[in-house]
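Hello forum,

I keep getting stuck at the same step: I have a sequence, I want structure tokens, and every attempt I make locally crashes halfway through. Rather than fight my setup again tonight, could one of you with a working pipeline run this one for me? It's a single chain of 210 residues.
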Amino acid sequence: MVEIKFYSEKTRRFYRLVKTETWPYLEISGIRMHRSDTIDPKTDAVLKIRALGNIYGTILDSCTGLGYTAILAARNKNVKKVITIEKDENVILIARQNPYSRELFENEKIELIVEDAFLETQKFKDEYFNFIIHDPPRISIAPELYSLEFYRRLFRILKRNGKILHYVGRPGIRQGKRYIKGIIKRLRLAGFSRIKKDDSSLSLIIEKTG
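Reply #2:
Ran it on my machine without issues. Output:
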């Protein structure tokens, strides 16, 4: 695999694809976009899909990145379609050069939308998705993807009895309690009542009860 790294004048960010023993991870201006400390990016993506249980139907992957979760979701025979959204064209450029992202562009079950997820989610019909994978950049980079308004949109487009995996990571102990508490509070205000932590994927599993 050829090393990929470059600076974008448009975004004023430095992009780098970093090799691991399995699938590479993306780094933007020194910030890793995948888990790669205790587990590798491939295992991370597998754990996220596994945490949702038996997936099926139509799935939204709100932040494409290198497309790993979209690819794994689409491989499931019971999944009919995966819609995945990425606003950063530089990330898509890297994904096109990453051999482990090839299925993102070749699997007919995957629809890639290069737009802003915060705006794009307004366009979907009510109760359109069976499952949603929400793995956003950290809150300091994309606060709108952690907002009450965005969570309300996810509630609207998720089917009853549908599930969301919301990656939250492992923030520091002091800030972590406030950070997670704030996310859960906004999710409840948006209408979600069943929320649990999944330690393996460092995520919240959120259900829209019928």
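The chain has one domain: 41-207. If your local run keeps crashing, start a new thread with the error log.
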